[in-house]
Amino acid sequence: MQWDLGDGRHEGTASMVAPDGxxxxxxxxxxxxxxxxxxxxPRDAExxxxxxxxxxxxxxxxxxxxxxxxxxxxxxVATKSEANLADHRAYVPFLGFATPPVAAEDAMKVxxxxxxxxxxxxxxxxxxxxxxxxxxxxxxxxxxxxxxVGLPWSAIASTLEITRQSAHARWGKxxx
Length: 176
Description:
The protein is an alpha+beta fold. Helix content is 36%, strand content 23%. The chain has three helices and eight strands. Strands 1, 2, 3, 4, 5, 6, 7 and 8 form an eight-stranded mixed β-sheet that branches. A hairpin with a 6-residue loop joins strand 1 and strand 2. Helix 2 (153-160) crosses helix 3. The protein is elongated and about 85 Å long.
């Protein structure tokens, strides 16, 4: 299952983890596909730079995001008695299908969403900061042009709804 924040930057999934730690983000006709060639598993017939791992080789799961973020590793345990969601240990029988249990996948989604939302808010902050810098540069340029054509500090201050003294203190050093 894939999750999408809708911001164009964050799409997440509960990825299956191969014995060597590589994540599987897709399923091929023969099994799970993992990027890279180790020689330990057969190559995929269509994607020659991927190996095919069967479900019984999945050692766990990990939330991952297309931005590169990875969540905590969830260990696949061999028996129900070893499972403990609080310790990120989940049981799925070795019967050829290694989808994480619903409770584990739900927990991974919560972890991914916290990452994606925090990252998205940081992006908003950075965009706002860039806008402020751009606006300040435009304002500085407009004041400079106003002074160059002879506009008095009182007219600039009145337009900007500040005092003449404030306008002169801020931009007076750049006066032509």
